[in-house]
Design brief:
By secondary structure, the protein is mainly β. About 0% of the residues lie in helices and about 45% in strands. A hairpin with a 6-residue loop joins strand 4 and strand 5. It is globular. It starts with a strand and ends with a strand. The mean pLDDT is about 95.
Length: about 120
């Protein structure tokens, strides 16, 4: 059974940073492309970033240059470093299975971690 547990969310001021983590289990993490998506209140899920099995990285234009995705296959963990956060970056962030542009379905993503951006 695929299990994904996100952590690291919280409240930050505009311009601040957070590091999100996603602990994965129940599948061969090192053989799967992984993705971060987010959902702001009242909006649809939005693809944020993906990383391939070979650690090629992909970003939405809205976060390029500010967010960094990475993975540690020894720890079965996916990361998303969020820098220079903007108020529009406030959302529930989910990790999931899939490559660039993928919006994972409920069974292929975690429960999410909340990021709030406010002064």
């Amino acid at each position: 059974e695929v299990q994904l547990v996100e952590s690291g969310g919280g409240l930050v001021q505009p311009g601040g940073s957070l590091r999100l983590s996603c602990a994965a289990s129940g599948f061969a993490f090192n053989l799967v492309d992984m993705t971060w998506v987010r959902q702001a209140p009242g909006k649809e899920l939005e693809w944020v970033s993906s990383i391939s099995t070979r650690s090629s990285t992909y970003y939405a234009e809205s976060v390029k240059g500010r967010f960094t995705i990475s993975r540690d296959n020894r720890k079965n963990t996916l990361y998303l470093q969020l820098n220079s956060l903007k108020t529009e970056g406030a959302a529930m962030y989910y990790c999931g299975l899939g490559g660039a542009g993928t919006i994972p379905g409920r069974g292929r993503r975690g429960q999410g971690t909340q990021v709030a951006v406010s002064s």
